[in-house]
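Inverse folding, one chain.
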């Protein structure tokens, strides 16, 4: 009885192991190939549950997502033979599983190394066709587009992968020329700043001179208007005085004499030595002011 239970238990274990070994799952983010004694029998297992022969078939799975190749800085020369230090990265994914496996043995690192060499060669060719200002700003997008097309034409057939994007992260000048370039740029900016300051001073002088001219004109016009108003006022006052004098000349003479007395004796120390019968005291001597 015990031997029978042990036998059934062993058969159950073997069945479970065989069942487990005969099933495999490929996720949505994976691509897979099946090998039988090292030979490919299924070059692209689709996502889902699959059956294999246990202990005979081997399943190799690969990451089907978009992967990033962050390449180290490399030195490239432009069309003018100017050396640049370029940092770049690439986005890629598996396109043909069979070609990818046969070219790299399913080793992701090997695929990245071979792709990095291709990217470096492509960047070197693209930089060598263009001048410095074109690779820095003028034709950056066209450079990347041409490079992606060139890479895909090669790596799809040779590596079974697709390059989705290549981007330049940073472009630097070599250290030995960076300081010289910086000094030259600084001198150019300083020269430009001096020109701007000179133009600003010139404009300031023009504005100041124009303001002074306008002030002089305004003061002259104001003085002219004031003199005209003063002259008109004096003329009007003279006319009023003349009209009043014509109405009563004797009264006018009397008021003028009173003002003369007030002016002559405005202070306690004022002294006049005059003949009492002089015209100055005419209105004091006679109430009518007659001589």
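Residues assigned per position:
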């Amino acid at each position: 009885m015990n031997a029978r239970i042990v036998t059934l238990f062993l058969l159950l274990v073997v069945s479970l192991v065989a069942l487990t070994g005969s099933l495999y799952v490929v996720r949505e983010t994976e691509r897979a190939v099946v090998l039988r004694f090292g030979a490919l029998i299924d070059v692209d297992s689709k996502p889902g549950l699959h059956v294999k022969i246990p202990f005979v078939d081997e399943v190799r799975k690969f990451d089907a997502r978009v992967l990033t190749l962050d390449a180290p800085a490399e030195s490239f020369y432009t069309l003018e033979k100017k050396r640049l230090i370029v940092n770049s990265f690439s986005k890629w994914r598996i396109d043909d599983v069979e070609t990818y496996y046969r070219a790299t043995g399913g080793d992701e690192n090997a695929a990245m190394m071979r792709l990095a060499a291709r990217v470096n060669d492509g960047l070197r060719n693209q930089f060598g066709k263009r001048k410095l200002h074109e690779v820095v700003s003028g034709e950056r997008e066209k450079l990347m587009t041409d490079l992606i097309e060139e890479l895909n034409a090669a790596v799809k057939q040779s590596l079974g992968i697709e390059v989705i994007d290549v981007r330049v992260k940073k472009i630097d000048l070599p250290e030995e020329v960076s300081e010289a370039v910086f000094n030259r740029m600084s001198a150019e900016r300083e020269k430009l700043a001096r020109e701007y300051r000179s133009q600003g001073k010139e404009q300031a002088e023009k504005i100041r001179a124009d303001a002074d001219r306008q002030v002089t004109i305004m003061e002259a016009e104001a003085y002219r208007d004031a003199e005209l108003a003063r002259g008109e006022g004096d003329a009007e006052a003279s006319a009023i005085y003349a009209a009043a004098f014509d109405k009563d000349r004797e009264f006018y003479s009397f008021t003028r004499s009173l003002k003369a007395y007030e002016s002559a004796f405005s202070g306690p120390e004022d002294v006049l030595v005059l003949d009492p019968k002089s015209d100055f005291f005419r209105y004091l001597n006679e109430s009518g002011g007659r001589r």
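The beta strands are 23-26, 30-36, 39-45, 48-51, 57-63, 67-77, 83-94, 161-172. The mean pLDDT is 80.
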